[in-house]
Amino acid sequence: MLRRFQYRDDATIDDYLGALELGILEDETRTEERQRGLSGEGGVFGTKLGGERSTTRGVESNVRQNAASKVEKLFRLLRSSDPREIWDLDGLTDDDWACLDKGSLINLSVDITVPTVSRALAAAKDLGPLVTLMQAFTDSVEDETAQQMQRLSQYGADGGSDRYSVVAAAEGNPKYKFLCRLGKTGLLVPLEHLEGTFQLFGQIEDFLAAGQRELAVDISGMGFMNREQRRKASKKADDSTHDHFIVGPGAIVHVIALYK
């Protein structure tokens, strides 16, 4: 199956392949048998003789794995293992959900939205020139707003956050939500391009009970807040900031790949 990746965590993929195969096979020699038919005609003492024969020879080729082929191999190994190591959840049901555990690997179609805060952080480094341009053509940018945008721009210029969060809902059963953790190095497209329907391949880190809120914000410094503090912060958020948190039932997911 040909896949177009928007996000891929190559380090995790290598780790899982290494665990399943007891090492990473970077190159593979394949031998293909090719059969060739031969025909000939000759004569002995004026009598014609004809016949056909075939020969078989092995043709060796050296195949090097790339990132996409490693994903294909990982899917094949996970699905062929006994017991099966991955849950394919297109058409997710309540019974399916009840069978999942922390650490379960899942693959399903989801509808993704990118929270406003994540969008702002991803675009932070570009805000400085924007403020200058806006101030040059209009007086509507207040000094305080301009200063805030400049500080955010400096944050982006200094490297910004090394991770982002997006929110996903199961396409077949949208009451189930997923808070998807992404590493910046795994993004293969700009963050805003993750809006829409994708296949989510990831590992469940934790669950959210029905009605339970979790902040959909993942920036440097959030690690100093424990889970209870993050949930208290999400409870204080009003409906005008609804895209800053998700409400269970759902799960927090370490994303291995997003693809179409």
From TrEMBL:
InterPro entries: DUF6414. Residues 31-63 are annotated as: Disordered. Pfam families: DUF6414. Residues 39-49 have a biased composition (Gly residues). This is Uncharacterized protein.
